[in-house]
Please model this.
Amino acid sequence: MRPQDIFILLKIISLHETNWLNIHISRTLNISASEVSEALERCRIAKLIDSSKRRINVLALEEFLIHGIKYVFPVQLGTIARGVPTAFSASPIKDKIYQGSEVYVWAYKFGTVKGLTVEPLYKSIPEACLKDDKLYELLVIVDTLRIGRSRETEIAIAELKKILTEYAKSQY
Model:
């Protein structure tokens, strides 16, 4: 598994459809088409997507994100910089919890918020999230699972399950 594999799967979930094209995923995430294809193959092998590479195995992805993401792709905190809010500094998590003075961001030159930088799963995440609100929500939830303490993690799990259930219903 590579970090962009999760990024690509979350983009597919944000689309809420099965007739997407690899080239569309590639363009919207600023990842080469061949890398999208390779990522989907890795996800097929890991059983996170079906053999046709069209439908995500929601239960497997949920289990991986809740129990494994923080170990496989641990958070690397950086310095204070401008960026795009993430983890419990952004919706939907920040709407449900008091965060205090800590603000976490993905460093981004056009960012509007100053905070402690979190290394995103993939370099083009900040830009891609500004174009896709649902993808942004999903990546905020994933970062909360990577960085959060018990209370934040509980909220992130509930939000993740809600989105994945909605996605699963739309696939049948």
